[in-house]
Structures are given as C-alpha cells and as structure tokens.
Amino acid sequence: MIDFGLKSEQPTRALVLEVLDFVDDVVDELGSREEMRFLREWAASGNTGADRQLAAFERTGDLRTVVDLLVDETRRGL
Amino acid sequence: MPQRFTLGIEEEFQLVDPVTRELKSHIEEMMAAGAHLGDQIKPELHQSVVEVGTPVCADIHEARQAVTHLRRSLIEMAEDSRRAHRGRRHASRSATGRTSRSRTACATRTSSTRWRTWRGPTSSSACTFTWVSTATRCSIQVMNGVRAFLPHLLALSVNSPFWCGRKTGVKSVRSTIFKRFPRTQIPDFYYSWDDYAKYVDLLVRTNSIDDGREDLVGHPAPRVLQDARVPHLRHPLPGRGDDRHRRLVQALVAKLHGLFERNLGIRGYSRAILMENKFRALKRGLDGR
C-alpha cells in the first residue's frame, strides 16, 4: 500500500504493523495487550481468511471444501 | 481513560444446505425459531441471510460474550431445524459466514422493511460490523481519522476470493460488489458534526435512507455512520480472530479520540487517495504493497 507520509509503496504487512504501533499506548487501558501481540505476529506472517479459502480449494479442487472450512471456523472457539 | 468506548457488534450469516453447500432461503424458519432473541435477530436483503446484533456492550469482554451467545443460538437453531427435517432432501442448514458457490439468483429477497424499497442490484454476501461509541463532540473527527486505516483493516480481513463458484483474482470480491450500493465506499471527509448532520438530513428528506437512526439494538446511532466501514468479513483470523480484529478497531477509535481531545490529530486525506489503498488491500490482502 501507499505510505502517504513517505509517498512510496510499502509492504502492506509493514504498514499494518505501523498501525499496531500507532495504537500501542492505548491497548493496556482497553485490556487488549495480549490480543495485539497476537495480531502483531499474525500480521507479520499469517494468512487471511481469503488465503485459507484459496489454500483449501487448491488442496481439493472442490468448492464444497471451502464452504466446510467456513462452517468450521464459524463454530470454532464457541 | 474516562471515555468507555462501548461496543456493539452485528454479524450476518449465510444459511447453507450442508448437503449441497448451496444457499438456502430459510430466514422465515430462523426468525420463528429465534423469537426468543427479540430484536437481536433480523432478516437481511436475502432470505438466505440472517443478521444478529448485540446490545451495547460495556467492553470487549462483554461484546465477546454476547457474540458467542448469538452464534451458539444460531447454530442450535440450525441444528434443531436439521433434526426436525431429518430424512428430507435439503434437510439441514448451517449458519456460516460466507458461501462461495451459490449464484445471486439462488437468493430470494425478504420483505424486510429496511430493503423494501431497494430496487438496485442484489448480491448475497455477509459481513460483520463493529460499532464503537465516542463522545459526540469529536466523533466526526474520529470518523475522519479512521478512514485512513480502513484499507489496513480490510487487508487483515479479506475473506471473499470466490464469487459464483469461480476464483475472482482478488481477495475481497465483496468490496468490489458493494461499489454498486450507495454509501458503501470510504466516506467523504466531514468538517463538523453539523456538516455531517446536514448530509444525513438530506438523505432522510429525500427518502434515500429511513430515519437515519437504527440498526444497533437499543443504540440510536446515526445509521449513516456505517459509511465508515470496511467489509469486516467473517473470520479474518482463525479462532478468536474476530475478537482481535474488533479490539484493533476499538483501539483505533480510542487512540484517535485521545488525540482529538488534546487538539491533536492526523491529516485528513481525500477519499480518492484512500481508495488507492483500499484497492490494493482488496486485491492482495496482506501480501500486497
């Protein structure tokens, strides 16, 4: 994405990490420190929901696998 | 931090047949089964989509509990429906965030009053909204500021690479589909609350929107504030990912609120330039540049 301050293209992951830096001084009061730490690790190297769907389709070539993934993730953690 | 930044969450779920994995028009049955949820459950534009919304929640923990309760309720209702119709074709339905195979034609419209007069394009999809309250005196400045981060939030949450059973080449096709709806892109910059209020008043007077106040249960938030939205599509992250994403939204609002309270702020960018980043985010998600 575009870093408007630098007026240059930057990796999106790096700019997302900058957003996490931006909010860092308020997350303790919100009780979200641990979750932001997870987001930081995830933003650096994790996959999005779209990536997981594409990977599921690549494995099987069957879109029903993608739907099953979404159903499974809807239930996860409840 | 005296400002509490209370939250409200809306989630939309698509209803799919677990045998065919196609969309199922099942909203009437879900509304009947979900009567105990009161106004926390609503129909959406299509009969294959159900929407649930939390009350105003004091903090992120309470919001998570409310969301979990609503999701469990929906899943139980879908399971009950499956048991009740065992043995029939298309016997069961499951609540899910998004299905990728069914064509728009499969999704019949509801008679929901919100969409009763809509004559525009229809496309079945589902998303989630995170509402965070701020003091009115600086809410417009906060909304202006959040606009700059919508592409970043989208990059984290892209979740629709398929449409009508085909790979689209982008990671959030929903973002492209919703261009056809009014008030769905990154909003304009507003100079003041009065500036924004005039905009809402015009929309109400011209029947472009209803009364400008609805949606979140028990929370008369100006509906057009939805414009400061990005398709927070379901399951941007695995497991408790939605919760973390919401926490980031809340943190952004809290950060910006704190800046504006101290007469600080960030630059207000034009919609045109922010849309450049939104396009990059919807196309490649986190892997772009």
Would you write up a description of this structure?
The complex is a heterodimer of chains A (78) and B (289). By secondary structure, chain A is mainly alpha-helical. Chain A folds into two domains: 1-46, no CATH class; 48-78. In chain A, 68% of the residues lie in helices and 5% in strands. Chain A has five helices and two strands. Chain A has helices at residues 12-22, 27-30, 33-45, 49-60, 63-75; strands at residues 2-3, 8-9. In chain A, a hairpin with a 4-residue loop joins strand 1 (2-3) and strand 2 (8-9). Chain B is of the alpha+beta class and 289 residues long. Chain B has two domains: 7-126, Alpha-Beta Plaits (2-Layer Sandwich), CATH 3.30.70; 130-289, Creatine Kinase, Chain A, domain 2 (2-Layer Sandwich). Chain B has eight helices and seven strands. Chain B has helices at 27-33, 60-84, 136-147, 150-157, 173-177, 193-205, 241-261, 271-284; strands spanning 7-16, 41-43, 49-53, 94-96, 128-132, 162-163, 166-167. In chain B, strands 1, 2, 3, 4 and 5 form a five-stranded antiparallel beta sheet that branches. A two-stranded antiparallel ribbon of chain B has the order 6-7. In chain B, helix 3 crosses helix 7 and helix 4 (150-157) runs parallel beside helix 8 (271-284). The chains are: A mainly alpha (78), B alpha+beta (289). At the A-B interface, helix 1, helix 2, helix 3, helix 4 and helix 5 of A face helix 2, strand 4, helix 4, helix 7 and helix 8 of B.
Measured distance between first and last alpha carbons of chain B: 35 Å
Find the count of extended strands of chain A (DSSP E, 2+ residues). 2
Structural class based on helices, strands and sheet pairing of chain B: alpha+beta
Low-confidence stretches of chain B: 87-100, 114-121, 214-240
Major sheet strand order of chain A: 1-2
Strand content of chain A: 5-15%
Low-confidence stretches of chain A: none
Overall pLDDT score of chain B: 77
CATH topology of the largest domain in chain B: Creatine Kinase, Chain A, domain 2
Number of DSSP helical runs of chain B = 8
Which structural class matches the secondary elements of chain A? mainly alpha
What kind of assembly state do the chains in view correspond to? Answer: heterodimer
Number of domains of chain A: 2
Rg for CA atoms of chain A: 17 Å
Gyration radius of chain B (Cα, Å) is 19 Å
> Into how many domains do the coordinates of chain B divide?
2
